[in-house]
Amino acid sequence: MSLNINGIAIPDSQLSREITDVVRDTVSPLLFHHSSRVYYFAALAGKRRGLKFDPELLYCGCMFHDMGLSHRHSSPNERFEVDGANAARDFLRNHGIEQQDVDTVWTAIALHTTPGIPKHMHPLIALVTAGVEMDVLGIAYDQYGDAERDAVVRTHPRGNQFKEEIIQTFYDGIKHKPDTTFGNVKADVLRDKEVHFHAGNFCSVIRGSSWVA
Question: Is this structure's pTM higher than 0.85?
């Protein structure tokens, strides 16, 4: 039986079971448990904010969000976020999901590393990013109760070296296509014009997050 936290659980459906099986068989245990935690944190955030969302679609978005880091789904020249979004798109289409819902899940995955935008969009898009930001960066850490965090991590362990392991996993998944890392042009402009400007560093934020490991 899956974890149930105040009514938040993995949907009991054939689609969700197939999502679980596909992701477990494709990514490392580290990414499988990370993605599972992302779902719980995303759904808990949705409940806390009073947002309406389809649990199956949210589960798909959360579980597929890092599929682009896997060898099976990594393309030569697309961002890993797009690779994951494409994998989810193909999976959902093969299961007869309506195109509008497919597009929403695709966008949620494609934007999950683009802060500041998803929170203004469809609840599912906002929540996938919220779940990722909580598990990786500890954003909104204090908005989750100790019992909630402990229950999620007990069921889907983080491990003692999660921060360094997730950084290494990201590196391994993108090192063969460095051009896809071109990103926030605003930081480049400020760095060009202001000698003392220092952009935030993703790895430093991970290491300094509220999570211990």
Answer: yes
Q: Count of residues for the chain?
A: 213
**What 3-state class would DSSP assign to 9?**
strand
Phi, psi of 158 (to 5 degrees): -90, -35
Alpha helices per DSSP H over the chain: 14-26, 29-49, 55-64, 80-94, 99-110, 123-132, 146-155, 162-174, 185-193, 202-207
69: phi > 0 → left, psi -120 to 50 → alpha, else beta; which? Answer: alpha
For residue 4, what are its two tokens? Answer: 């149930």
Domain assignment of residue 82, yes or no? yes
- Chunk the chain into consecutive blocks of 10 residues (it has 213) and report each block's average pLDDT, rounded to whole numbers: 87 97 98 98 97 97 98 96 98 98 98 96 98 96 95 94 95 93 84 87 90 74
> Is residue 212 domain-resident?
no
Spatial contact of 40 and 112, defined as CB atoms under 8 Å apart:
no
Q: Report yes or no on 213 lying in a domain.
A: no
| Both tokens assigned to 47 | 């409940």
What CATH number is associated with residue 122? 1.10.3210
- CA 189 to the chain's CA centroid: 28
| Collapsed DSSP state (helix, strand, coil) of residue 8 | strand
CA–CA separation, 15 and 57 (whole Å): 10
For residue 188, the enclosing domain spans 4-207
Position 153 scores a pLDDT of 96
Total domain count, the chain = 1
CA 102 to CA 107: how far, in whole Å?
Answer: 9
Q: CA-CA distance, 213 to 208, in Å (whole number)? A: 10
